[in-house]
Amino acid sequence: MGRRGQHNLRILMRSKPPHTTRIDNYIIGLEEIRDKLIIISGIRAHRARKEGTRRDVRTHSVLTCAKIASLRASTSYTCLQVKKGIVNMRKAFKYRIYPARKQNIILLHVLAVCRKLYNDSIHDRQVAYEDCRCSLSYCDQQDWLKFADKQGVYGHILQNVLRRVDASFRNFFRRVKNDEDKVGYPRFQGRNRYDSFTYPDPYGTGYKIEGGKLHLSKIGAIRIFQHREIEGKIKTCTIKREGYRWYASFSVELPDSEPKEVKTSVGVDVGITTLATLSDGTVIENPKTQDKYDSKLRKAHKDVSRKKKGSSNQNKQKIVLAGIYRKVRNARKDYLHKASRILADTYDRIIFEDLQIENMVKNHHLARSIHDASWGILISLTTYKAEYAGGVVKLVNPRNTSKQCSVCGCIQSMPLSQRTYRCPDCGAVMGRDHNAAINILNKHVPADCGELTPVEMVA
What we know:
seven-stranded antiparallel β-sheet; 459 residues; 50% helix
């Protein structure tokens, strides 16, 4: 398989999730190129026979046959690899680890070496462009890595650091090409901003779990609390620091779930007063997690500001503050996990609004409440849980879902303070969020159906 075919395959396999249409188009494109080569070879052979140059005919035939054989092998290899990508999905299992004092020092040393390599790699790319007007690739920097002092760090961890740098620059150039507002040039990482390193190899290469301990190459055996068994084939292991705690996250590969027949569908309207209201009338309450810890957070912030800047007492108080934020984050995530599990287990098709949350939080009166509700996390958790169970999550245009009557289609102005929807045309009366949830359900039109008018919608 040629370099260009491998490059296209890598681009194709990085697509998340893989789309069958795009895959088919790519394979069809390869077959079309192969057919064109066959036609070109025939034309050249005919022209050569006419001119009487048999040697050229043979040369062109040999070269063209080699290209066709290469393309055939490339097509079959691509089909095989793409099929592997379709039937496999990724899932992460996160466990807390308890390193000893010496192991904690080693982990901090590994983070420091990785951070230095990350910053040096960004600096090298900047210097190469400023001085020579050339760009460095991952392969260029990896070739240099074998001459560097690894300082007792496992070599594949450092290779993964270079891949992170390469990914950050690729994302930067993609955002520039798409003319996005925030291009996000890769930044240097400070002491407290680089908190993880990855063993990029499959299970057994650099890490393994034996006897209740996680064995890490060049680090040692660390006690791990494995509260549930790992499912699937382990592909990578990431060690992450959160405050003064350490976690191990295993990325595994699982077979894709069989899509099940859609029997139950529900529209979900997310909000602040209630976290979510379903089209069947079910209400999921908003826990308002940050409000419960608001007094503790205020006190901890005051204590940090009263300490001398840069002192050990201030650093200790920062750890206390980070611990409170961790409790808030864990409590919120636990509630959202449970809510998304109920939705994924109860319904086969779940329809949300395609909200532009970044624009909504520009309203400073509602930004805190929107961040605390975490609608995006709820949608994300529900999506992967539904896909794992064979269900599906769809997003629809949120326009007029709160203003439109779900019975007759009449549209009226609805300020946020008005919590009950009263239709002036048909006289329908229901909760504002319930009406919006029914409209969200009605807005989802299957691809093989025509556009529905409000009169044809079912309440």
